[in-house]
Design brief:
The protein is an alpha/beta fold and about 600 residues long. About 45% of the residues lie in helices and about 20% in strands. The chain is built from 22 helices and 23 strands. Strands 10, 14, 16, 17, 18, 20, 21 and 22 form an eight-stranded mixed beta sheet that branches. Helix 14 links the parallel strand 16 and strand 17. Helix 2 packs parallel to helix 3. The longest helix is centred in the first third of the chain and has 32 residues. The protein is globular and about 85 Å long. The protein starts with a helix and ends in an 8-residue tail after the last strand.
């Protein structure tokens, strides 16, 4: 027994000691990774840009991202804020001779790609070069790369150029087999978020709207490539429609690329461009490292010492109540941020950066109220990202001005609610029955073990109608239109930024820099510094509880593969069943 306790005690001491050492190691790594040590850029350096991870609105506050240590590198994403700042910085940096766009998959939305593309076009005004290379050109990466001075592809590579497609996953058949009926209450002919639950194919109205906005996105895509490559847009359409590009030689012959080269030949070309001897190593710096370079500036106009501030409030992700995080919009967190900048006398104007498909109608209204109050005391300009639709548009509509990209997805002014009837699943499939008592006729309204009665459907429909009335009133007031007009262009219909401009849902087309400039002009200030809200949580705060969640997510993605998106869709539907929703018809995936 004495030996047993000695063994147990020794084991406990060993575990405690190992844990302590591990904590010290992790703390040391975090400290080293998060230190403010600047990176010196050597002369004749190439800025290496390869977008192989998701692009978010802001770079996550994770010093271990990319290190692969103990699975704590969960945020391997790059923030659009840092990408744009680095391109802008490289333009004026005498040590940066050019940009090398390397193999990228561009998992970002089209408006995000547009922001980066426009920044590269501006970079070229400096006279510095941009060279692009890939073994595989996806349509998204080629759109970005098409602005380069030279576009190269591996001689045995793949060049995708076949047009856009958008596909919806319908779940009605699966629900029928399970004995689940999706009871739908909605307003809006085009509010088709519910269609995957009640149909097996697209409705005529939904097919029409998807055809319309997909055509608008594709037209903008071809127009951009036509301008940058000097190829007639109709010719580009025919190349894709007839699948004229099947091997790299086809892309070269049709002038979509400038040459077929292997990576070593690209590196040799870059050495020549930078005056580097062929036997020497090429001086290059990664995007993430360049953020830490000593020439980094915090403001767009070199006025970081100015007492005037413009606040950028980032609202990214689905909208719900509570705090949320950098990837979801919590009404409490965003409202708190808006209140803070509204009461800060140093903040002269606000840019609300919206990248959201919508979500809870109640949470959207809470944020809308804060935008309204902010507009009464200082200018607030909305900059739309990839998506600012439904609830995402709701929180934007009260602003002084709305700026969107041509390929932003917006609109979807509508509202719906879902309540499942799982009686057949419980009774027929599982053999489970329910019985009980209630004190009033509607005391069990919302129970999922039975269908809604006609009276209950009417109550819920009135509730949704009231929400739609509030939505259209808010948009009409914010956009200075009649409610009847907003109802006519509403009905849940989705528009691109270009289409939204024509019908008055946005004021102009442009990027986040344009929104900042507009805010400064409206506030009548010429010098200012930028401050970002909400404040990002420290890495250690984020880490609490995240490791288990991340491990589970990775396991699911590994097991489900491409089907993980369907899992996410089903998960999202279960969340939508809680409250009335102002959100996009479905997850728009364009290939």
């Amino acid at each position: 027994m004495k030996q047993f306790f000695k063994f147990v005690l020794a084991s406990i001491v060993g575990i405690l000691l190992a844990t302590f050492i591990l904590v010290v190691i992790v703390a040391g790594i975090i400290y080293a990774a998060s230190s403010d040590k600047t990176v010196e850029v050597e002369p004749n350096t190439v800025l290496h840009m390869a977008f192989t991870t998701p692009i978010t609105e802001r770079t996550p506050n994770n010093p271990l991202a990319g290190l692969g240590f103990l699975g704590l590198d969960k945020d391997k994403s790059t923030g659009l804020n840092d990408i744009l700042a680095n391109i802008r910085k490289a333009k004026a940096d005498p040590d940066i001779k050019g940009i090398f766009l390397d193999e990228s998959y561009m998992t970002s939305g089209q408006a995000t790609t547009e922001e980066i593309r426009n920044a590269l076009i501006d970079f070229k005004k400096s006279g510095k070069f941009v060279v692009a290379y890939a073994e595989i050109y996806t349509q998204g990466f080629y759109y970005l790369a098409s602005v380069a001075d030279k576009v190269y592809i591996n001689p045995k590579g793949i060049f995708e150029f076949h047009g856009f497609s958008s596909q919806i996953t319908f779940l009605k058949g699966a629900l029928d087999k399970l004995g689940i009926e999706a009871q739908i209450i909605k307003v809006g002919t085009y509010k088709s978020a519910v269609e995957p639950l009640i149909l097996t194919k697209m409705s005529d109205a939904n097919r029409m709207q998807v055809t319309s906005y997909l055509g608008s996105l594709y037209d903008h895509y071809l127009t951009g490539i036509s301008k940058s490559r000097g190829i007639n847009k109709d010719s580009l359409f025919n190349y894709a429609n007839q699948m004229r590009i099947q091997i790299p030689e086809d892309a070269l012959k049709l002038k979509l690329v400038d040459g077929l080269k292997y990576k070593d030949e690209i590196l040799a070309d870059l050495k020549k461009r930078t005056g580097t001897k062929q036997k020497s190593d090429l001086n290059s710096i990664e995007l993430g490292e360049y953020t830490k370079s000593s020439t980094e500036k915090d403001s767009l106009d070199d006025s970081s010492s100015s007492k005037n501030r413009i606040a950028i409030v980032y609202a990214s992700g689905e909208i719900s109540g509570g705090d949320g995080d950098d990837n979801t919009i919590g009404s409490e967190r965003i409202s708190k941020a808006l209140r803070k900048v509204r009461l800060d006398n140093k903040v002269k104007a606000v840019v609300l950066r919206v990248n959201s498909p919508g979500g809870s109608s109640l949470a959207s209204d809470v944020i809308w109220r804060e935008v309204m109050l902010t507009k009464k005391v200082k200018p607030i300009i909305v900059s739309m990202g990839d998506v600012a639709a439904s609830g995402g548009y709701y929180i934007a509509c009260a602003a002084d001005s709305i700026i969107a990209q041509p390929n932003t997805i917006t609109g979807s002014i509508g509202i719906f609610a879902i309540l499942p009837n799982m009686q057949k699943l419980f009774n027929d499939k599982l053999g489970v029955t329910f019985d009980g008592v209630k004190t009033g006729k509607y005391a069990d309204l919302g129970d999922i073990n039975r269908p809604l009665t006609p009276d209950e459907k009417l109550i819920l429909q009135n509730n949704v109608n009231h929400g739609y009335d509030d939505f259209t009133k808010a948009v009409a007031e914010g956009r200075h239109k009649t409610q009847a007009y907003i109802n006519g262009i509403g009905q849940g219909r989705v528009w691109t930024g270009s289409q939204a401009l024509k019908i008055g849902l946005v004021d102009r087309l442009g990027n986040i820099n344009d929104a900042i400039a507009s805010a400064a002009k409206k506030a009548n200030i010429k010098s200012y510094s930028l401050v970002a809200y909400p404040e990002q949580k420290s890495f250690l705060n984020q880490l609490s509880g995240d490791v288990t969640v991340e491990a589970r997510t990775r396991m699911l993605k590994s097991e489900l593969g491409d089907s993980y998106r369907v899992y996410e869709q089903i998960k999202g539907i279960t969340q939508m069943m809680r409250t009335p929703q102002t959100r996009l018809p479905y997850d728009i995936v364009i290939k």
